[in-house]
Amino acid sequence: MKFRTVVEPPEPMRGLEVPPAVVEALGGGARPPVTITVNGHSWRSRVAIMRGRHLLGLSNANRQAAGVTVGEEVEVDVELDTEPRVAVEPADFADALAADPLARAAYDNLTDSRKREHVRAIESAKRPETRKRRIDQAIATLRAR
Length: 145
Known about the structure:
The protein is an alpha+beta fold. The protein folds into 2 domains: about 1-80, Beta Barrel (Elongation Factor Tu (Ef-tu), domain 3); about 90-145, no CATH class. The protein contains 6 helices and 7 strands; from the N terminus they run ββαββββαβαααα. The protein has helices at about 20-25, 60-65, 90-100, 100-110, 110-125, 130-145; strands at about 1-5, 15-20, 35-40, 40-45, 50, 55, 75-80. The strands form 2 sheets. A 4-stranded antiparallel β-sheet has the order 1-7-3-4. It is elongated and about 50 Å long. This is DUF1905 domain-containing protein. InterPro entries: AF2212/PG0164-like_sf, DUF1905.
């Protein structure tokens, strides 16, 4: 579904306002998972509700990638995202989980967003020793659950 909206400033969490009729037509509930495309740049998110308004967050990175600025009117193409949101475990983290059945079971019971948090922390490490330490910390945290 396409609609036009103005790019709002990022504080306190604005971005792109979605007309209520568009949210309803998507058919995914009040906060549907969506794929958003602006100026050929696409990303996955979820419709948020703030102060009675339906909003799509628009990070600085996505704003730059789409080539839009605050105050600009843009065409937004939004569609219901039915693909599972799965965190892909890096091989070294998967090996550590496989070696610890208790941690694996705890990890498998986490929500997808919590899994992504662990994966993001590990993948954002710049040095191998930091990455190893973060994997060890994740395993310890999961074992404590």
